[in-house]
Amino acid sequence: MSEARKTDLYELTMAMAYIHEGMTAPATFSLFVRDLPPERGFLVAAGLEPALDYLSDFRIGPGDLDAFANALGRPTRELVPLLGMSFDGEVRAVPEGTVVFANEPLLEVTAPLPVAQLVETYLLNLLSHQTAVASKSARCVLAAGGRPVMDFAMRRTHGLEAGNAAARLGSLVGFSGTSNVDAAATLGLPAIGTMAHSYIEAFHSEESAFHAFARAHPERPLTFLVDTYDTDGGTRSAARVIKSRGLGADSAIRLDSGDLADQAVRARRILDSAGLTDVLIVASGGLDEYRVDRLVREGAPIDVYAVGTRVGVSADAPYLDSAYKMVAYDGRPVMKLSSAKTTAPGQKQIFRSHGCSDVIALRQERAASDVRPLMRPVMRNGQRVTDAPPLSEAQERFAAEVSQLPPEARRITGPLPLRPGFSDQLKALTSQVRRRIASEILAPERV
Amino acid sequence: MSEARKTDLYELTMAMAYIHEGMTAPATFSLFVRDLPPERGFLVAAGLEPALDYLSDFRIGPGDLDAFANALGRPTRELVPLLGMSFDGEVRAVPEGTVVFANEPLLEVTAPLPVAQLVETYLLNLLSHQTAVASKSARCVLAAGGRPVMDFAMRRTHGLEAGNAAARLGSLVGFSGTSNVDAAATLGLPAIGTMAHSYIEAFHSEESAFHAFARAHPERPLTFLVDTYDTDGGTRSAARVIKSRGLGADSAIRLDSGDLADQAVRARRILDSAGLTDVLIVASGGLDEYRVDRLVREGAPIDVYAVGTRVGVSADAPYLDSAYKMVAYDGRPVMKLSSAKTTAPGQKQIFRSHGCSDVIALRQERAASDVRPLMRPVMRNGQRVTDAPPLSEAQERFAAEVSQLPPEARRITGPLPLRPGFSDQLKALTSQVRRRIASEILAPERV
Question: Domain Nicotinate phosphoribosyltransferase C-terminal: where (chains A, B) (predicted)?
């Protein structure tokens, strides 16, 4: 499908009005999250790479004109001024895997006003969704305290596209594998998964199901799901199969329901007394960072955590309070004033000191020597500045960034997010634009 | 992309074990929701049509074998037994738009065991996600009490696919339009939307922005966004533009932030005193069924509700506790016994009496004359029984079904879902299978 149709109708009606008025000067839009959801001490910037792919491919073709005309109820010929429009602008952004906080721009787009407007909807969609899921996934990695975390979300994400995003974002923050075959194949991620309860039920006994599985998969480390009927009995069956087949250290059992901590203790005891001290215990079933954290704190002898639904849909924060706000048009800084949702004008930069102490500044400000700017040019004239980086770059960035976070931001329950400050120059510009709006725009209409 | 890759790795490892063991007899899997989320008095079955499209197209080709081999870390030749496998089974389901409750099968698949297993992941994904969003959307329609509801969710759904699903599902339960251009074009839905705050900011005054919009869109009813700087002032500007251009009854103003009830009262007063009693007020901005319900109860003079993010991601219930459970294999009813997640065995039917008083029964049971069966054959030998129905069929079905729901299930806050009963025959079969498992499967392993 054409990328150009991934938009809301109002982007189109605005673009048409801009073209009609000859308002095609460059505009800058800033995409940021106004407030972090409760129970988030930080966000992990994500979605930039698919967003740049989208912008690279954005081009309005004849088929799009027909679709637009249909949506607007206007003849196609009236849409002709849009034909051939592509994204030829500049993008500055924080790279994927960067830790970010409220009000920090994830991305700034500068392009002729109509096209900068048309790309709003899908940029917001990609960056909001993916940053939400990456942030939730990152908390699972922190909760697991070094134990491997796996993505099992595909069956309940909001479509396949979201399932593949969950797999990629899990990997970005340090997951060890995914159950999702398409994502594993497409993204080159380790694929993991073995059997369901239904598999056990299809056989006349649990142990015969395990043996059949081992016969069919002679070359793989095997994981046996032991809680279909009775977890202790299932663990003993698995232990017998593992011993009789000499599967040893490559194998694992999986617990998927009930009191996981208690069952893991009992299963560990059964495995150990069978001499299978190197057989691992995998836990799954409704896990998220809160439950993983509790299990780890309780000392549950669980070696691998598989997280699914709640993480893939970011269940406690399934969306972010994100905004795509115009901050400059034709060289003039602008802002929205009404109610509580005031936004700061002008193109920006984020300066980070050690410990993620951040200042949001204007783009042209100079950094002190001990701070580093987080936003960098990623697209010029509609072309990526560099080739798409491998996922490993974002993985390494996240690992380095998260280690600098203070403990209260990393906390799973009741985390305290850092609050970036605003530079003096940005504060001065904000006051100045506010005064200008009050005098030029509000005053005459109050008459 | 090939439909066959939309699966979890464990579906594949199980399918291989089944083929290896010659276990290719027909199996029946039942897809249902175990418990309704809090604050849901009913669910609206949805996702069946895309699920049938998926099953129709499911076929394992040579490229899939390579992807599977890669995911499994095995040579492609070992996957050859899967080559050419397609979905050639039977599907019985409740049609889209049907009101359903806990434990009622949305769908039952009967197919050779390996293929019935391979389709689990994506069937669960489609039906869980779409039923969740349709159910949330339906509550918005109920809350709005006859006032039009619009879908504005695209910018924060989990990807474009989820955005298009939200537009379709909103329409299914009675929404009047969508902001999503691609969904409107593809599905033939009314597209709606006009301008953002950034549009106003791009001009030197709010009123000049409104005039420019009217010049560019001479043929459309226009909606003016009035809360960029000061809502009363914006409403007065809009009133002047509407009057001076004679836009009258076709037009509207939109409120998108702040105290919507208070602003709507003030805006209505301003419009009425300008003689614009037929200009509508549209409200948007963080709306969901709870907020719409409150605004309607407060008597806010809002004519149209645009709901977005919270509805498109089903924010208070972003997933359903759904399951795809084997209920029969090779003529033998089966069930999972462990912990609290017992499932009832055998192929099923749902019998509904007036007022949505339901009984879950076995497939072969006869209905009394005053009840109707909800599940119907929709696919035989991998082919749809009828052509894909138009969306209007599901729309009419939902409208008829929801009108039969008792008020306590329709309630927005603290709804009470109906609890279907189980037929005597189903209860008897459940006890019998439970006893068989206890004697055949559990007992020997307890040794």
Answer: 367-428
